[in-house]
Amino acid sequence: MLIQLTDQPIDVAAVLQAAQADGAGAVNAFIGTIRNQSTGRRVVRLHYEAYDQMALHQLRRVAEQAVEKWPMLQQVAVVHRKGTLEIGDVAVVVAVSTPHRAESFAACQFIIDTLKQVVPIWKKEEYEDGSVWVAAHP
Amino acid sequence: MNLSIALFGITREIVGSSVLQLDVPEGQSVDGLLTQLRQHYPALGQLSSLAVAVNNEYAEPTDRLHERDDVALIPPVSGG
């Protein structure tokens, strides 16, 4: 299992490699990237910050939950970026491997969906005329 | 007792510091702490949600806090 936060660019190939397993016929990956607009506003860049110790703890738990739900999971790799990211940069990579493809899609989606709900990481969107902490206010 | 509360994202900006030292009653509940904080910093009450983490876990409102706990405020998360 590879669970990591980093303030350096994510090496996507290395994360995929970490998910590879000899017993797996499928490696499935989600790559989250920075897009140039949000709710109609032009995004210039994003700033990510994390509560590192809790984020790593919660990420490990999400990976363990995935293994409980899909016991055939061979490997789980999750790397999330911190710091300032520009348009097109990779913010997160989730990669899993399973013997067959169907479970790899489901497990990968579960991990990224749950990550977004529970892992203490925050992003601030910077626009040409201001900035907002995403989801902070109703 | 004295609590050291870690702050992130918008809560860090509202309070103006990444750590808040706060004197709270012995055995203060999580809910009591939030009430106390919202009185000091009304902007915390405007957030979509505000959770408290104790020792890397999301705490329940009735959980009691202890001086050596790792306490943090968790505003709405937005990773990914």
UniProtKB/TrEMBL annotation, chain A:
It catalyses: 2 [molybdopterin-synthase sulfur-carrier protein]-C-terminal-Gly-aminoethanethioate + cyclic pyranopterin phosphate + H2O = molybdopterin + 2 [molybdopterin-synthase sulfur-carrier protein]-C-terminal Gly-Gly + 2 H(+). Heterotetramer of 2 MoaD subunits and 2 MoaE subunits. Also stable as homodimer. The enzyme changes between these two forms during catalysis. It comes from Hymenobacter busanensis. PANTHER family: MOLYBDOPTERIN SYNTHASE RELATED (PTHR23404). The lineage of its organism: Bacteria, Pseudomonadati, Bacteroidota, Cytophagia, Cytophagales. GO terms for molecular function: molybdopterin synthase activity. It comes from the Bacteria. Pathway: Cofactor biosynthesis; molybdopterin biosynthesis. InterPro entries: MoaE_sf, Mopterin_biosynth_MoaE. The keyword Lyase does not apply. Its EC number is 2.8.1.12. The keyword Transmembrane helix does not apply. GO terms for biological process: Mo-molybdopterin cofactor biosynthetic process. This is Molybdopterin synthase catalytic subunit. Belongs to the MoaE family. Keywords: Molybdenum cofactor biosynthesis.
TrEMBL record, chain B:
GO terms for biological process: Mo-molybdopterin cofactor biosynthetic process. It comes from the Bacteria. GO terms for molecular function: nucleotide binding. Keywords: Nucleotide-binding. It holds the Pfam family ThiS. Transmembrane segments: none annotated. GO terms for cellular component: molybdopterin adenylyltransferase complex. PANTHER family: MOLYBDOPTERIN SYNTHASE SULFUR CARRIER SUBUNIT. Belongs to the MoaD family. This is Molybdopterin synthase sulfur carrier subunit.
